[in-house]
Structure formats: C-alpha cells, structure tokens
C-alpha cells in the first residue's frame, strides 16, 4: 500500500533534518564530497557538498538535493525512505515549529478540546486531517488535534510540555510519516 510518488521523492535543503539528510550525507561522504560524519542536519557544509557534487556532475548547482540530484548521487536509484512500523507509505515534507501551553497567548486546550501536551500537533486540516496519527523522527508519534492561524499548507506545530522544550526544538524542515 505504498504510494510510489511519495516513495520516489526527496528534498534535502538548508535546514532539513532527518533520515533523508543522513542518507544523502552518507552518499556524499562515500563519494568524497563531505568530510566528517552524517548527523542528519543539512547545514552549510552539507549544502556546500551538494553544490560541489552538482557542479562536478553538470547539474544545476543550487545546493538542494531533489529527485534529479539524488538519482545521479545514488547511481540512478529513486529515493525510498525507510518508513516506521505502521506507516502507510505517505511521507510529507513539512516546516515544523514548536509550541506549548506555557507560551504567551496560548490556550491550554487544542482545537479538538484536548490538553496541549507532548504527542499533539497543530496542522492545516486540508493537508493532514484532524485525528491523523503521524511519526516525527526524533520526537515520536503524534496526533493531529490542533489548528492555528499560522498553520497553513505543509507546516505543522509540534506540541511540548514546556516552553523551554518548544524553544529547543525551534524551526525545522523535516519528513513526517502518516501512520495507519
């Protein structure tokens, strides 16, 4: 029940985090474009390595590893992410921010009427329907129980128990997996 379109798509750019970044970093390391270890965070060194690889291979040197760059980098293969147990094969690339009930101006309750707590995300219901379970690498499972005025399109807000935890999460471009 995998969606081949979702499985064949990759986007690694400045600020991206997760398994796809780690995978691209390992390919860049193997081919001599990146020094050090694969940390799963696309920062300036990874962007520069992608750009250098693209220049060396006659690709548009924008420092973004999309499908075309990945096919050359991987020797002609399409990207197929490892999906967590229970995932239905749908991977979404989202901009993720974080929040808590302790944040100034926030309510203690979600749009669904539950308490704001770890394990909840705010979503655009047109993209991720309310009640949908997702897996967020480095965070775990969460349920779409909230919405927000600034949450539009492929943007989620990840709930934490404290303001400090939300600040530590910051803003990230990540892959999330839709669960059954």
Automatic annotation (TrEMBL):
User: Domain 3D spans what residues?
Assistant: 120-180
The cross-references to Pfam families, in alphabetical order and at most eight, read: 3D, PG_binding_1
Gene Ontology biological-process entries: peptidoglycan turnover
Q: What InterPro entries is this protein classified in?
A: 3D_dom (IPR010611), 3D_YorM (IPR059180), Peptidoglycan-bd-like (IPR002477), PGBD-like_sf (IPR036365), PGBDSf (IPR036366), Resuscitation_pf_RpfB (IPR051933), RlpA-like_sf (IPR036908)
Q: Which domain of life is it from?
A: Bacteria
Keyword Signal present in the record's keywords: the answer is yes
By its UniProt entry, which CDD domains does this protein fall under?
Answer: 3D_containing_proteins
Q: Does the keyword Ribonucleoprotein apply?
A: no
GO cellular component terms, A-Z:
outer membrane
Q: Which residues form the Peptidoglycan binding-like domain?
A: 17-73
Q: Which UniProt keywords apply?
A: Signal
Q: Name one GO molecular function term.
A: hydrolase activity, hydrolyzing O-glycosyl compounds
Name of protein: Peptidoglycan-binding protein LysM
Q: Identify the species of origin.
A: Selenomonas montiformis
């Amino acid at each position: 029940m995998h969606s081949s379109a979702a499985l064949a798509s990759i986007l690694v750019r400045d600020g991206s985090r997760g398994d796809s970044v780690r995978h691209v970093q390992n390919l860049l390391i193997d081919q001599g474009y990146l020094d050090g270890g694969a940390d799963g965070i696309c920062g300036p060194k990874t962007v520069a390595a992608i750009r250098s690889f693209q220049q060396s291979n006659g690709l548009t040197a924008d420092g973004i590893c999309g499908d075309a760059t990945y096919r050359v980098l991987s020797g002609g293969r399409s990207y197929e992410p490892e999906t967590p147990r229970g995932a239905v094969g749908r991977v979404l690339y989202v901009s993720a921010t974080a929040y808590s009930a302790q944040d100034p101006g926030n309510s203690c309750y979600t749009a669904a009427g539950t308490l704001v707590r770890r394990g909840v995300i705010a979503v655009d219901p047109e993209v991720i329907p309310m009640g949908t379970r997702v897996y967020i690498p480095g965070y775990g499972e969460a349920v779409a129980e909230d919405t927000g005025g600034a949450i539009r399109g492929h943007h989620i807000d990840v709930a934490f128990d404290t303001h400090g935890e939300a600040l530590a999460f910051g803003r990230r471009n990540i892959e999330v997996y839709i669960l059954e």
